[in-house]
Specification:
- With 333 residues, the chain is an alpha/beta fold.
- Helix content is 41%, strand content 9%.
- The chain has helices at 4-25, 55-61, 77-82, 87-94, 127-142, 160-171, 200-206, 219-234, 263-271, 274-284, 288-311; strands spanning 69-71, 148-153, 176-182, 185-186, 189-190, 211-215, 240-245.
- It has a five-stranded parallel β-sheet with strand order 1-2-3-7-6, with helices on both faces. It has a two-stranded antiparallel ribbon with strand order 4-5.
- Helix 1 (4-25) runs parallel beside helix 11.
- The N and C termini lie far apart (56 Å).
């Protein structure tokens, strides 16, 4: 079992990154009732923040090897960091700079780092599920005991790739863990009124995928259940599903004030903050000083990432045509 301090470190790094990215995006888009600020934003456009959901990637990725693979979502900063990606290169990508993971050409929803097993964030809802199933099929054929993990939101279960991916994984007994981050809201709409049945875990059971529902804001509970399920998957038992009930503290995007949400729902999310809960547990163990040190280290790391990103150059004009397939039907101009 991973110790709580290690889990806390991962969560605090994610929160520090998200807070900094949110601030950097303010004023960068005229939408959601906002106007452009006098000072141009460092991030030119909205970001999908995972603030409040940090316990899920922290608890799951604590059990993964660098050679294990994950797929993410449009709300993927937390997964990417928890899997071992470099926050400085991530921040540079958000800033559209040449030192970013995609040389500044992809932005938040296209960050990938194959060196740590991160196959990529994805702006298409539910798309990562099928990609993870395909990756798991390749891992099974390779036969090295590696696993794939697909993170997705509760809104994804109403899309076809959810059914397709779970069905494929069952039929071929694939080493994949499906992780539903159920924050109860799909973009700007409550999920429950438009979702039949018992949600992700209920639908998974109907397809023959054993799963478990867990308090997704209790990082130790997530870590415990994820460890058990990943051990089963790694041992050849086929696919599993972790249904993590969590809370999205922010709007759909970083410049969204979330006026469509009930005040009591926002209050519940803030009161159930996973970092606050973990911090309280550490204090009960007499580890407040260690927690303070972790928080200082996270802020310093992200401050350095911000400074490096702002100082980095934008991509050269000719870079726009690099790494793009040319079918031979024309010449890039």
């Amino acid at each position: 079992m991973t110790d709580l301090l290690s889990l806390y470190r991962t969560m605090v790094r994610i929160r520090a990154f998200e807070d900094a990215a949110e601030e950097a995006s303010q004023g960068g888009v005229q939408a959601w009732g906002l106007s452009a600020s006098a000072k141009p934003a460092l991030v030119r456009g909205p970001l999908h923040l995972s603030t409040g959901q940090e316990a899920v990637p922290a608890g799951v990725c604590a059990h993964l090897r660098p050679s294990d693979l994950i797929t993410s979502t449009h709300r993927g900063h937390g997964h990417t960091l928890a899997k071992g990606a470099d926050p400085a290169r991530m921040m540079a990508e958000l800033f559209g700079r040449a030192t970013g993971y995609n040389q500044g050409k992809g932005g938040s929803m296209h960050i990938a780092d194959f060196s740590v097993g991160m196959l990529g964030a994805n702006g298409v809802v539910a798309a990562g599920l099928a990609i993870a199933a395909g990756a798991a099929h390749a891992l099974k054929r390779r036969g090295r005991g590696e696993v794939a993990v697909s993170f997705f939101g509760d809104g994804a279960i109403n899309r076809g790739p959810f059914l397709e991916a779970l069905n494929w994984a069952v039929v071929y007994g694939l080493p994949v863990l499906f992780v539903c981050e159920d924050n109860r809201i799909s973009a700007t709409t409550e999920s429950a009124p438009m979702t039949g049945g018992e949600g992700a875990s209920g639908r998974a059971a109907a397809l023959g995928v054993p799963g478990v529902k867990v308090d997704g804001n209790d990082v130790q509970a997530v870590c415990r259940e994820a460890g058990r399920l990943i051990a089963q998957v790694r041992g050849g038992s086929g696919p599993r599903l972790l249904h993590a009930m969590t809370e999205r503290q922010k709007g759909h995007v970083s410049v969204d004030k979330a006026a469509y949400r009930k005040p009591q729902d926002v209050e519940r999310a803030l009161a159930d903050d996973p970092i606050r809960r973990a911090r309280a547990a550490l204090e009960r163990q007499g580890l407040a000083a260690q927690a303070d040190a972790i928080e200082r280290e996270a802020r310093a790391e992200i401050d350095a990432a911000l400074a490096a990103a702002e100082a980095a150059p934008f991509p050269a004009r000719e870079a726009a045509y690099q790494e793009i397939a040319n079918t031979g039907e024309g010449v890039w101009k």
